[in-house]
Amino acid sequence: MAAPDARPRRKLLVIVDDTPESKLAQRYAAVRAKNAAARVLLLHIIQPSHFEHWMAVEETIREEARTAAKELLDAAAQEVFAVSRIAPDHLVREGAPRDVIGDLVAEDREIMVLVLAAADGKDGPGPLVSSFTSNPDAFRARPIPVMVIPGCMTLEDVEEIA
Questions:
Q1: Which 3-state string (H, E, C) describes the chain?
Q2: Beta-sheet pairing, 89-94 with 39-46
Q3: What predicted TM-score, i.e. pTM, was given to this entire model?
Q4: Rounded CA gap, 87 and 81, in Å?
Q5: Region at 118 (left for phi over 0; alpha for psi -120 to 50; beta for the rest)
Q6: How far is Cα 65 from Cα 104, in angstroms, rounded to an integer?
Q7: What count of other Cβ atoms lies within 10 Å of the Cβ of residue 1?
Q8: Tens place of pLDDT for every residue, the chain, 162 residues?
Q9: Which of 104, 80, 88 is CA-nearest to residue 25?
């Protein structure tokens, strides 16, 4: 008889990129995972390039994007583990962010919430936050809550609310 999986089954989905707000979302998810016996799923989305006429250039751009994604995800995974003491899962997907996230939520029934952080500036909360908070059909296949962390918060503030 196999031993039961000791890892928590519920997941908090966090989009990883090189923005300051991504770090806030990662910190919230890490602390929340620790407090709620959940896991963190880190997702980096590579948006399609528009070099279709130059196949060699397109493949080089894709390979560079995959390498950068791996570096970002490895660093994020280390930070999440340092806080939660639970090894996060991580994925790289290609496509339009809204479609990729919607598809992933539909296929992975363990994802319980999407954690985003708003940009801290006068240009608005950012494209992902705007996309998922302004459209009620964002998750047609399986609705989940979207947690939006204000971009003006510090990492310490985030830890207090998680």
A1: CCCCCCCCCCEEEEECCCCHHHHHHHHHHHHHHHHHCCEEEEEEEECCCCCCCCHHHHHHHHHHHHHHHHHHHHHHHHHHHHHHCCCCEEEEEECCHHHHHHHHHHHCCCEEEEEEECCCCCCCCCHHHHHHHHCCCCCCCCCCCEEEECCCCCHHHHHHHC
A2: parallel
A3: 0.87
A4: 5
A5: beta
A6: 20
A7: 3
A8: 444 456 668 999 999 999 999 999 999 999 999 999 999 999 999 988 665 666 677 778 888 999 999 999 999 999 999 999 999 999 999 999 989 999 999 999 999 999 999 998 888 888 888 887 777 677 777 889 999 999 999 999 999 998
A9: 80
How long, in residues, is the chain?
Answer: 162
